[in-house]
Amino acid sequence: MPQSRPTEDRQPYRDPALPVEERVADLVSRMTLEEKLNQLVGMWIYVSGAEERVAPHQEDFADDTPPWDEMIENGLGQLTRVFGSAPIEPAKGAAALSRLQREITGSSRFGIPAVAHEECLAGFTAWGATAYPVPLSWGASFDPDLVREMAASIGADMRSVGVHQGLAPVLDVVRDLRWGRVEETIGEDPYLVGAVGSAYVTGLESSGIVATLKHFAGYSASRAGRNLAPVSMGPREFADVVLPPFEMALRLGGARSVMHSYTDVDGMPSAADEALLTDLLRGELGFTGTVVADYFGVSFLHKLHGVADGPGAAGAAALRAGVDVELPNARCYVEPLAHLVRSGEVGEALVDRALHRVLNQKVELGLLDPDWSPEAAQPRELDPARNRDLARRLAEESVVLVANDGTLPVREPGRVALVGPLADDPFALLGCYSFPAHIGVSYPDWPNGIELPTFRDEIARIATHVDHVKGCDLPEGGADFDAARAAAADADLCVAVVGDRAGLFGRGTSGEGCDAADLRLPGDQEELVEQLLETGTPVVLVVSSGRPYALARFADRVAAVVQVFFPGEAGAAALADVLTGEVNPSGRLPVSIPATPGGNPGTYLTAPLGAASEVSSLDPTALFPFGHGLSYTTFAYSDLVINAGEVATDGSVDISCSVINTGDRDGDEVVQLYLRDPVAQVARPVRQLTGFTRVSVPAGESRTVSFHLHADRTAYTGARGKRVVDPGVIEVHVGGDSAHARLSGEFRLVGEVREVGPDRVLDTPATVTP
């Protein structure tokens, strides 16, 4: 228990009956400058002993960590990654966190606990915690409800061990598929990212965990797909593509924290951008929570961006812009900033502004209540059966059957040649923020902490005989094409598992700092596939990756293509069940699969000049478009009904159709609603996702799907830089992907041009009836 403070416990700031702002104002009035600044920083006590980087330039700042005892004399704002920095058993981690909190509250004058934060992008990044599918798989599921359920489970696990804040979700919209962090994103469409990301936020916040939206904003559009590279983007693309997912997650999800981006947009680093973090985020969007720094992001204003001449100037720039908390350590916000405040160069009012936000959140979390105790955590198993079941369901829904000549499903696999560098590698299932891949690789003497059956393990479960040959190494190294050819030639079916191995800062082919020069399969994998195809044995190509790869070289020669995006600990079982038909595939592509490896960046969301044309020799048309995915049954669409021919620019319209399962087995279809504004003030996308829903349809039956579309959902940033709804024809396209409309129609918006703001309607509700 924290040391007894009978006098302090009677102070107004300790009284839960008082309004939050009154409690906070009372506490702020009592604090010294040093005590205030210490609430605006984190402490990463494990950074110096880390064997591998998990944050950019981590080694450059490891020695800057102040001594623990000295640091906590004036209190502490946040504790950085007690669980996510080294392997530690959950009960021991909870005990360690409790001990640190006791030391913080016992050493400082006001006894204010720290907010403990952790990563939780693919599950709680802690040893022994469930490794869920990565966000790109969430997008492939097109199932916000299931993602919400997963996030609530992740949050409950974090709360059970004393964690308060989760650094997720990533709401960056994919703009360049070469970027290493594509695996951390949800997809290339802002509405998909916003809908699924908001569901994650709702689930995490429902468990009491503060969700942190990242990276605000524009990070994924870095030039040439290089991590931390500058962003060249106009204000219209920023407003209409980059910003909407954050708006949705704030308004619809209720996120209480935002993390700034590392990059600079048009030369302005996000961490120093007052127009972004204060005028836009707080002024226009009404955000009242905390803005936290991406790790070392404040220091980067000095070290990388060159917009500050030292730590103090960097701290002043970030504080002025609206960054409330410096993470992961105190480098710019304590001594250097204190000197500038005392000299009069930085007003203490800026410190107080950030402090009020930080303390408001601590009050909301109950950290200033008299009965708060660090012993309240109740550690529990972090990978129980209910979690594993949830991970498997999400993995099953995210498997995308991209192409199939009828070979799949294989009801009774006979002799199977299982080939590829990822076929028997448990890390083929994991993204770079799953604990075993993120931290565990640096501790080879520690077990993974969870069961990670490989594709080989699960294929062996369903086949009578499996002959496994690696074929080649990843990313490069030895290759044994002869053995791979021999195994394939002697088999009834060849399953080739290719793709990525996630890592950090060049230690993988996908992940943070693992950017790609082009979209060829890494290493010798393309040549391996060619060798297998020459045998004449049917080849099922399984791509397990963090980004899509160009497949036109052999897409018309393989028997089937199955895409999974780092599907987590249950991913191999989910794939095996899809191959045999035990599970009917229902995943859809959250990112387009390109035909050729060059010609990037490019996504489906493009104006007409971005499409194929006779005036360029390059054809950017995707091999398989956004939203594409096959099933073992078939679906027909009919009876498109648009209930109004004319709709006021502030009105709404209902759009419905019938979806019929015309096959012989039950299946799920993802019905997608796309709009096009053919004549607008500025060039608009050829087609843009505006609504979707996953619908289960029994064999031979039909379902009616209805979308309620408000005119706000047609809004865009017009010629004068204002977001508008303007009159004119709106084309309606309904179908199973972005390139092929099953049903088309139109309605006309009528009335005056109407400006809309952040309070506009952001979603398109869908209902399903028999």
Automatic annotation (TrEMBL):
Residue ranges of domain Fibronectin type III-like in the record: 669-738
Domain of life (superkingdom): Bacteria
Gene3D superfamilies: Glycoside hydrolase family 3 C-terminal domain, Glycoside hydrolase, family 3, N-terminal domain, Immunoglobulins
Biological process according to GO: glucan catabolic process
Pfam families associated with the record: Fn3-like, Glyco_hydro_3, Glyco_hydro_3_C
Single GO molecular function: beta-glucosidase activity
SMART domains attached to this UniProt entry: Fn3_like (SM01217)
Database matches in InterPro entries: Cellulose_deg_GH3 (IPR050288), Fn3-like (IPR026891), GH (IPR017853), Glyco_hydro_3_C (IPR002772), Glyco_hydro_3_C_sf (IPR036881), Glyco_hydro_3_N (IPR001764), Glyco_hydro_3_N_sf (IPR036962), Ig-like_fold (IPR013783)
Keywords in alphabetical order: Hydrolase
Similarity annotation: Belongs to the glycosyl hydrolase 3 family.
Role this protein plays: Catalyzes the hydrolysis of a non-reducing terminal alpha-L-arabinopyranosidic linkage in ginsenoside Rb2 (alpha-L-arabinopyranosyl-(1->6)-alpha-D-glucopyranosyl) to release alpha-D-glucopyranosyl (Rd). It is not able to hydrolyze alpha-L-arabinofuranosyl-(1->6)-alpha-D-glucopyranosyl (Rc).
Name of the protein: Exo-alpha-(1->6)-L-arabinopyranosidase
Annotated source species: Saccharopolyspora aridisoli
Taxonomic placement: Bacteria, Bacillati, Actinomycetota, Actinomycetes, Pseudonocardiales
